Amino acid sequence: QVQLVESGGGLVQAGGSLRLSCAASGRIFSINAMGWYRQAPGKPRELVATITNDRRTNYADFVKGRFTISRDNAKNTVYLQMNSLKPEDTAVYYCNADIGPSYTGLINYWGRGTQVTVSS
After folding, report:
1. What are the CB-based long-range contacts (under 8 Å, 24+) for 16-19?
2. What is the pLDDT of residues 34-55, one digit of tens each?
């Protein structure tokens, strides 16, 4: 079994910062792309940022210049540094990863999410 466990969410004032972490554990042979998505109440889940195993990154326009995604392959962990947070960043943030439990095939996994609340 593979698990993705997020941490680092919480309540912060507008303009503040938070750092999210997501650690993958279990039967892991390889990890390809990892990423963060978010879902605000009443809205669909949306992409925030992704990073490949060779550290190529992609960001949603609404976080460019404010958020930074990174990963530590030795720890099977992906991070999201969030700066200059705005109330509209309030959402549940989900970790996502393509993980190979063996030398063949990749399976897409989701974490359970961590709440980020930004007060005005």
Report:
1. 16/85, 16/118, 17/81, 17/82, 17/83, 17/84, 17/85, 18/82, 18/85, 18/116, 19/79, 19/80, 19/81, 19/82
2. 999 999 999 999 999 999 999 9
* Phi–psi pair at 25, nearest 5 degrees: -140, 165
Q: What is the mean pLDDT of residues 50-70?
A: 96
What is the largest distance, in Å, between two alpha-carbon atoms of the chain? 48
Task: Render the burial of 77-116: b for 16+ CB within 10 Å, e for the rest.
Answer: bbbbebeebeeebbbbbbbbbbbbbeeeeeeebebebbeb
Six-digit token string for 73: 């392959």
Q: pLDDT-based confidence at 105, cuts 50/70/90?
A: confident
**Distance of alpha carbon 60 from alpha carbon 46, whole angstroms:** 9
Q: What is the 3-state composition of the chain as percent helix, strand, coil, each rounded to the nearest 5?
A: 10, 60, 35
